[in-house]
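Quick board copy: two proteins, each given as sequence then tokens.
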Amino acid sequence: MSNKKKPRNKIKALLRKTILILSRVKKFFLTNQLVLLFVVVSSILFLGSTLFFFVERGNNEAIKTPFDSIYWIIVTMSTVGYGDISPTTLTGRFIAMVIMFVGVSFMGLFSATIASGLVERDIKGGMGMLDVDLEDHVVVCGWNHNACRLIENILESQKDKNIVILANLQSKPIQNKNVYFVKGDPTNEVDLHRANIERAETAIVLLDTSSGNLESADARTILTTLAIETINSDVYTCAEILDSKNLPHLRNARVDEVITSGEFSGRLMAHTAVSHGISKVISEILTRNEGSDLQKVSLPDEFAGKPFDDLFKQFRDKENSIILVAIERNKEVFVNPEKGFDIEEGDNAILICRGTVKTEDLL
């Protein structure tokens, strides 16, 4: 008795697997209408051309090879109708009628599905529902009133740079082909993965005021930077905070640069009160106007051992009037260093210049 049951159990198991596979295939085609239509159109092309070839061959001088039949059915389905090949038999004409009716209908559906898919993707992209597949891009986490200007300045200096906005907004805030939008929470690792933070070059964590709660803004900045560094410790992270008391937390999170917005604006106001016009100078440098473009450039190795003062004079005498402001060395910045300060290999120069300056322009 048990021996009889074994074949039955095997048959039942095989049937269950077959039903499971068929249900998965059905689900795949229902959720991928374009694939389904492609399979249907391809099947019509294959079956129709095969039947037409065997029916017309020998009776129709224009049908000599299977390619002639394939050419005829494509021309018929696309409603071009050159007329160089036409059916001569009754069966062939019946096949042509079916192909014209069924084929044109499915070709229309095929075109409509492609168009609707493109429109749907564009809508989802504008609503931040799609993941991004980029590399060496900039991820802007959070949103505030300065974010638009920030992104515009990045695009001005690097026109081909891709920027991903990761914020809890209703729709894409900036319409630009290089700007992508992911709707989500920057403190959430899942949403950071959607913005492809693991392949990003730079992450900018803004003081997020979109929720209206300033008291928790710094806490969100810290949580976001921790999540970013956990996923990708190589990404260059710049964070904005409101209270300088939170600086130690960001240093523990290995943030590369921190901007204290409240402290910065307070110091600027103090300098403006004492020396009128200072804010105009700072604004002129930061807005990338002609002649006041602030840049960082790698110094050639030939400059190693040269005094800072000599380079200052050498750069100033160039056609684009380069002003050497500071030297960056091992992530430490020396602004207007004292006399006797010499250049070392690997140093970067912070410059005020006209137009874009490259390393070879300094020689």
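And the next:
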Amino acid sequence: MVVKFKDGVQDSYPIWENLILIGSETDEEAIKIATERAKQDEGDCDGSFTWNKRPATWCFAGIRKLMSSEDFDERPTNGTEVSYIEMVVDKEEDFKKLVNGEPVLVQYIN
């Protein structure tokens, strides 16, 4: 999901990557279901949504990654990995900043 501002210049693009479990028989069906589900979160909360005090709306940006569950025959339970994000930083200092929640440039892998 990406935040789109309703006024002024869009000089940044706040993004949320939501990890949602989807049950399906095929990858194509999973993408269709995931897209439909994600689009339910679009909107501006009846005009009350703001980002940094600016009127805004959430917009569906696409499905970035599709992964299969490691427990094909069982429902996910406590401890089941549902997703991961692989990324690379250039320096150990950047890694430490990332772990501490500080801004840093990362390269996402797939």
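Board note added afterward: The beta strands are 2-5, 50-51, 54-59, 86-88, 107-109.
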